[in-house]
Protein backbone atom coordinates (compact mmCIF):
# COMPACT_ATOMS: atom_id res chain seq x y z
CA UNK A 1 0.00 0.00 0.00
CA UNK A 2 1.26 3.50 -0.87
CA UNK A 3 1.58 5.69 2.31
CA UNK A 4 2.72 8.62 0.22
CA UNK A 5 6.32 7.40 0.37
CA UNK A 6 7.51 6.15 -2.97
CA UNK A 7 11.06 4.92 -3.40
CA UNK A 8 13.38 6.64 -5.85
CA UNK A 9 13.58 3.39 -7.83
CA UNK A 10 9.83 3.15 -8.16
CA UNK A 11 9.57 6.78 -9.29
CA UNK A 12 11.99 6.22 -12.17
CA UNK A 13 10.44 5.18 -15.50
CA UNK A 14 10.83 1.52 -16.44
CA UNK A 15 13.41 2.27 -19.14
CA UNK A 16 15.55 4.19 -16.66
CA UNK A 17 15.36 1.35 -14.13
CA UNK A 18 16.47 -1.09 -16.81
CA UNK A 19 19.35 1.21 -17.79
CA UNK A 20 20.39 1.49 -14.12
CA UNK A 21 20.24 -2.27 -13.74
CA UNK A 22 22.35 -2.79 -16.87
CA UNK A 23 24.94 -0.33 -15.59
CA UNK A 24 25.13 -2.28 -12.30
CA UNK A 25 25.51 -5.55 -14.21
CA UNK A 26 28.28 -4.10 -16.39
CA UNK A 27 30.13 -2.77 -13.32
CA UNK A 28 29.86 -6.15 -11.60
CA UNK A 29 31.09 -8.08 -14.63
CA UNK A 30 33.94 -5.65 -15.30
CA UNK A 31 35.09 -5.77 -11.67
CA UNK A 32 34.56 -9.54 -11.52
CA UNK A 33 36.65 -10.21 -14.61
CA UNK A 34 39.45 -8.00 -13.33
CA UNK A 35 39.49 -9.66 -9.92
CA UNK A 36 38.88 -13.24 -11.07
CA UNK A 37 41.68 -12.87 -13.63
CA UNK A 38 44.15 -11.45 -11.10
CA UNK A 39 44.33 -14.29 -8.59
CA UNK A 40 42.47 -17.38 -7.36
CA UNK A 41 40.25 -17.39 -4.28
CA UNK A 42 38.22 -14.24 -4.97
CA UNK A 43 35.01 -13.85 -2.94
CA UNK A 44 31.65 -12.46 -4.05
CA UNK A 45 31.98 -9.75 -1.39
CA UNK A 46 35.24 -8.60 -2.99
CA UNK A 47 33.56 -8.39 -6.39
CA UNK A 48 30.69 -6.33 -4.96
CA UNK A 49 33.12 -3.96 -3.22
CA UNK A 50 35.24 -3.53 -6.37
CA UNK A 51 32.11 -2.87 -8.42
CA UNK A 52 30.87 -0.27 -5.92
CA UNK A 53 27.60 -2.10 -5.26
CA UNK A 54 26.16 -3.85 -2.22
CA UNK A 55 26.01 -7.62 -1.96
CA UNK A 56 22.20 -7.41 -2.07
CA UNK A 57 22.44 -5.64 -5.42
CA UNK A 58 24.94 -8.18 -6.75
CA UNK A 59 22.80 -11.12 -5.66
CA UNK A 60 19.77 -9.38 -7.16
CA UNK A 61 21.42 -9.72 -10.57
CA UNK A 62 23.33 -12.96 -9.93
CA UNK A 63 21.51 -15.06 -7.30
CA UNK A 64 24.44 -17.43 -6.75
CA UNK A 65 28.19 -17.76 -7.28
CA UNK A 66 27.40 -20.14 -10.13
CA UNK A 67 25.30 -17.54 -11.95
CA UNK A 68 28.05 -14.95 -11.52
CA UNK A 69 30.71 -17.41 -12.70
CA UNK A 70 28.69 -18.32 -15.80
CA UNK A 71 28.11 -14.66 -16.66
CA UNK A 72 31.83 -13.91 -16.32
CA UNK A 73 32.73 -16.89 -18.50
CA UNK A 74 30.12 -15.92 -21.10
CA UNK A 75 31.68 -12.46 -21.41
CA UNK A 76 35.13 -14.02 -21.67
CA UNK A 77 34.03 -16.42 -24.40
CA UNK A 78 32.50 -13.52 -26.35
CA UNK A 79 35.84 -11.69 -26.20
CA UNK A 80 37.76 -14.82 -27.21
CA UNK A 81 35.48 -15.54 -30.15
CA UNK A 82 35.79 -11.92 -31.29
CA UNK A 83 39.60 -12.11 -30.99
CA UNK A 84 39.61 -15.10 -33.36
CA UNK A 85 38.38 -12.80 -36.09
CA UNK A 86 41.64 -10.84 -35.97
CA UNK A 87 43.94 -13.84 -36.45
CA UNK A 88 45.19 -14.56 -39.97
CA UNK A 89 44.38 -18.23 -40.64
CA UNK A 90 45.35 -18.18 -44.31
CA UNK A 91 48.20 -20.24 -45.70
CA UNK A 92 49.22 -23.74 -44.56
CA UNK A 93 47.03 -24.97 -41.70
CA UNK A 94 49.96 -25.92 -39.45
CA UNK A 95 51.36 -22.40 -39.65
CA UNK A 96 47.90 -20.91 -39.13
CA UNK A 97 47.31 -23.03 -36.01
CA UNK A 98 50.68 -21.98 -34.65
CA UNK A 99 49.73 -18.31 -35.15
CA UNK A 100 46.40 -18.86 -33.40
CA UNK A 101 48.08 -20.41 -30.37
CA UNK A 102 50.74 -17.74 -30.07
CA UNK A 103 48.51 -14.74 -30.76
CA UNK A 104 45.70 -15.97 -28.51
CA UNK A 105 47.92 -17.14 -25.66
CA UNK A 106 47.60 -13.76 -23.90
CA UNK A 107 43.87 -14.48 -23.54
CA UNK A 108 44.51 -18.00 -22.29
CA UNK A 109 47.02 -16.64 -19.79
CA UNK A 110 44.67 -13.87 -18.65
CA UNK A 111 41.91 -16.41 -18.15
CA UNK A 112 44.06 -18.84 -16.18
CA UNK A 113 43.08 -17.42 -12.76
CA UNK A 114 39.53 -16.86 -14.00
CA UNK A 115 39.24 -20.58 -14.67
CA UNK A 116 40.65 -21.36 -11.22
CA UNK A 117 38.00 -19.13 -9.63
CA UNK A 118 35.04 -20.67 -11.46
CA UNK A 119 35.97 -24.36 -11.36
CA UNK A 120 34.19 -24.88 -8.07
CA UNK A 121 31.08 -23.09 -9.32
CA UNK A 122 30.53 -24.53 -12.80
CA UNK A 123 31.02 -28.08 -14.00
CA UNK A 124 33.89 -29.10 -16.31
CA UNK A 125 31.19 -30.34 -18.70
CA UNK A 126 29.60 -26.87 -18.85
CA UNK A 127 32.99 -25.29 -19.51
CA UNK A 128 33.79 -27.75 -22.29
CA UNK A 129 30.37 -27.28 -23.92
CA UNK A 130 30.72 -23.51 -23.80
CA UNK A 131 34.10 -23.84 -25.54
CA UNK A 132 32.39 -25.56 -28.50
CA UNK A 133 32.14 -22.50 -30.82
CA UNK A 134 35.88 -21.90 -30.43
CA UNK A 135 36.73 -25.58 -30.69
CA UNK A 136 34.72 -25.88 -33.91
CA UNK A 137 37.07 -23.30 -35.41
CA UNK A 138 40.04 -25.36 -34.23
CA UNK A 139 38.44 -28.48 -35.67
CA UNK A 140 37.98 -26.81 -39.06
CA UNK A 141 41.63 -25.77 -39.05
CA UNK A 142 42.85 -29.26 -38.15
CA UNK A 143 40.56 -30.80 -40.78
CA UNK A 144 42.00 -28.42 -43.36
CA UNK A 145 45.49 -29.45 -42.30
CA UNK A 146 44.58 -33.10 -42.77
CA UNK A 147 43.37 -32.34 -46.29
CA UNK A 148 46.63 -30.46 -46.98
CA UNK A 149 48.68 -33.38 -45.66
CA UNK A 150 50.36 -31.33 -42.90
CA UNK A 151 48.40 -33.05 -40.10
CA UNK A 152 48.04 -36.77 -39.49
CA UNK A 153 44.89 -38.63 -40.55
CA UNK A 154 45.21 -41.74 -38.39
CA UNK A 155 43.67 -40.21 -35.25
CA UNK A 156 40.04 -39.16 -34.80
CA UNK A 157 39.54 -35.46 -35.46
CA UNK A 158 37.62 -35.10 -32.18
CA UNK A 159 40.58 -36.57 -30.29
CA UNK A 160 42.99 -34.10 -31.88
CA UNK A 161 40.75 -31.22 -30.82
CA UNK A 162 40.50 -32.63 -27.30
CA UNK A 163 44.28 -32.90 -27.00
CA UNK A 164 44.68 -29.21 -27.89
CA UNK A 165 42.01 -28.23 -25.35
CA UNK A 166 43.57 -30.44 -22.66
CA UNK A 167 47.16 -29.38 -23.31
CA UNK A 168 46.24 -25.68 -23.23
CA UNK A 169 44.66 -26.16 -19.80
CA UNK A 170 47.56 -28.34 -18.68
CA UNK A 171 49.97 -25.53 -19.61
CA UNK A 172 47.88 -23.10 -17.55
CA UNK A 173 47.94 -25.50 -14.59
CA UNK A 174 51.72 -25.87 -14.86
CA UNK A 175 52.11 -22.08 -14.74
CA UNK A 176 49.91 -21.93 -11.65
CA UNK A 177 52.02 -24.66 -10.04
CA UNK A 178 55.22 -22.76 -10.81
CA UNK A 179 56.66 -25.47 -13.06
CA UNK A 180 56.33 -23.39 -16.22
CA UNK A 181 56.47 -19.67 -16.96
CA UNK A 182 53.92 -17.74 -18.99
CA UNK A 183 56.72 -16.86 -21.43
CA UNK A 184 57.68 -20.52 -21.97
CA UNK A 185 54.17 -21.85 -22.37
CA UNK A 186 53.30 -20.80 -25.97
CA UNK A 187 56.47 -22.35 -27.44
CA UNK A 188 56.13 -25.55 -25.39
CA UNK A 189 52.45 -25.90 -26.28
CA UNK A 190 53.12 -25.26 -29.96
CA UNK A 191 56.03 -27.72 -30.04
CA UNK A 192 53.99 -30.41 -28.28
CA UNK A 193 51.09 -30.07 -30.71
CA UNK A 194 53.35 -30.04 -33.77
CA UNK A 195 54.89 -33.29 -32.57
CA UNK A 196 51.46 -34.83 -31.95
CA UNK A 197 49.84 -33.66 -35.19
CA UNK A 198 52.72 -34.27 -37.58
CA UNK A 199 51.98 -37.02 -40.16
TrEMBL record:
Which residue ranges hold the DNA-binding region? 43-62
The ranges of region (Disordered) come to 1-23
Task: State a single Gene Ontology molecular function.
Answer: transcription cis-regulatory region binding
Q: Which Gene3D superfamilies match?
A: Tetracycline Repressor, domain 2
Q: Which UniProt keywords apply?
A: DNA-binding, Transcription, Transcription regulation
Keyword field contains Zinc: no
Name of one Pfam family that matches: TetR_N
Please give the InterPro entries that the UniProt record associates with this protein: Homeodomain-like_sf, HTH-type_TetR-like_transc_reg, HTH_TetR, Tet_transcr_reg_TetR-rel_C_sf
Q: Does the keyword Transcription regulation apply?
A: yes
The residues covered by the HTH tetR-type domain are 22-80
Cross-referenced PANTHER family, in alphabetical order? HTH-TYPE TRANSCRIPTIONAL REGULATOR BETI, HTH-TYPE TRANSCRIPTIONAL REGULATOR RUTR
Which protein, by its recorded name, is this? TetR/AcrR family transcriptional regulator
